[in-house]
Amino acid sequence: MSEEGIFSVDTLLKYMGNDDKARTIVAKIVRDACAPGMAPFEQAGAALREQRLPDAGKIFHSLRGSIGTLGAKRLVAASLELERAIAEQSTDSIPSLFAALESEYQLVLRDADAWLRRNAA
């Protein structure tokens, strides 16, 4: 699978002026978006195990919104697929979609961390 679409703040940087000030602001956005770490998956996993599908769906929707701003196209696609399965109560497909989304999220966190190390002051 291509690395493209995992994480890219290039467009965001460009819109913000692509200078040191923009880089500082984007670094804060990246840090804030990634700060929860794996907690959303722990919470959503618990919600799924407890059959609280709407709660799990809300967690993924929120995650998609915050991480999607980081150019995480693959994560957004995986999240939409899982959210749809949750809304349709397709319990057979939820575990594999959850695992796929979790894997994408880990890649975003990895690439975001690498970007921060290269670019943050």
Automatic annotation (TrEMBL):
<dbReference type="InterPro" id="IPR036641">
    <property type="entry name" value="HPT_dom_sf"/>
</dbReference>
<dbReference type="GO" id="GO:0004672">
    <property type="term" value="F:protein kinase activity"/>
</dbReference>
<feature type="domain" description="HPt">
    <location>
        <begin position="41"/>
        <end position="108"/>
    </location>
</feature>
<dbReference type="Pfam" id="PF01627">
    <property type="entry name" value="Hpt"/>
</dbReference>
<protein>
    <submittedName>
        <fullName>Hpt domain-containing protein</fullName>
    </submittedName>
</protein>
<keyword id="KW-0902">Two-component regulatory system</keyword>
<dbReference type="GO" id="GO:0000160">
    <property type="term" value="P:phosphorelay signal transduction system"/>
</dbReference>
<dbReference type="InterPro" id="IPR008207">
    <property type="entry name" value="Sig_transdc_His_kin_Hpt_dom"/>
</dbReference>
